[in-house]
Amino acid sequence: MELHDFKKAWQKVNADKSRREGLDSAKINELLRRRSSGILSRLDRSVKIGIWFLVFFLLLTLADQLLPADLLFPSEYRGSLQVPKWINLLEWVVNFMLMLSILLFVIRYRRLQSKTLADQDLRGTIEKVLSLLDTFKKEFYLAVIILLSGISLGFISGANKGFQSVQISQPPSILNVAIVVVAMLFLLSLILGSIFYIFHKGYNHLFGKYRDQLIKSLNELQEHEE
Amino acid sequence: MKEDFLRNITLNQGIIHKVTRIYCDDEDDRKDLFQEILIQLWKSYDKFREQSKFSTWMYRVAINTAITNFKKDVKSRKKSEIEKDLYLLADEPYDEEKEEHLKLLYEAINQLTGIEKSITLLYLEDKSYEEISEITGISQNYVRVKMNRIKKKLESFVKSKERI
Prior knowledge:
The complex is a heterodimer. Chain A is an all-alpha fold.
């Protein structure tokens, strides 16, 4: 069988199938209105959702820090919710980094013009999709880091509170303090490490293979130029 | 604008069907890819300024969408279903030779990479190297080199099949 036989077979199957598969404009319009499960649309949606999620989280933490405690918590909890100033400072640093990251994501997303992702040459499209994937990866890991920072700050704040209350009733020896600090740091690292590992595995399961596939195609295109 | 788009797409929808046929093995994947291509075409329609032919632009967006589409694990599908859908020309009386050619065609295409599939599709559609280059953005020289490799790949596949 030669290539022109392939061509004949191809033309034959298309002539036959186009008679059966033709859609009218109403059906095409309906397809356009439905939510697509294609990866380009999903990726675009994920980046947008990621940006909104980060904005929402930022607003939430800003509200927590800026609004007076009388507005947010019942009076019986206010005394116990006092946190040391250095923890507040850490929260502000995290918020500032978060604001900066959101701004960078939005700028990067607008530059990518993901609306016209597929309307490039082949190499441009693959590179753009890889950039979009990279943006989403950074957003994803930033969200994980925010979550882990929140857990860490809560944990440290709780430990600090506990330590202060113990210190008042019976001052502990330096050795006991050292043992407790090491044990708590170990526990915290274990929790943070496990959470990070689960999210990291989840991300790779979702997009790792896809990224490899795109890089393979890009390498195939570059192969000739080299 | 949308009416204009729908009219043009309805007239040229064969291009999308052909692209989905060459890139997808089963019906569900083909439907998903068809919809995704439609959406990408609609999203970039306002950028289409008739600098190229509508069909050239459509091929470009459709092929780019197909190449950047995620390939699902083939192992999870039932091979019999794929074969049934791909090879049979249900409306026609059974023609063993034609069916055999089609079966071989799809099996051979499945050996190719995403980029090779795009060049093969355009070759099967009787496009010149210049047109293939315009659609894909790959230099004509590279298209020639690739086409030679594809021919060799397909020939060796057919020979190996004939030996069996």
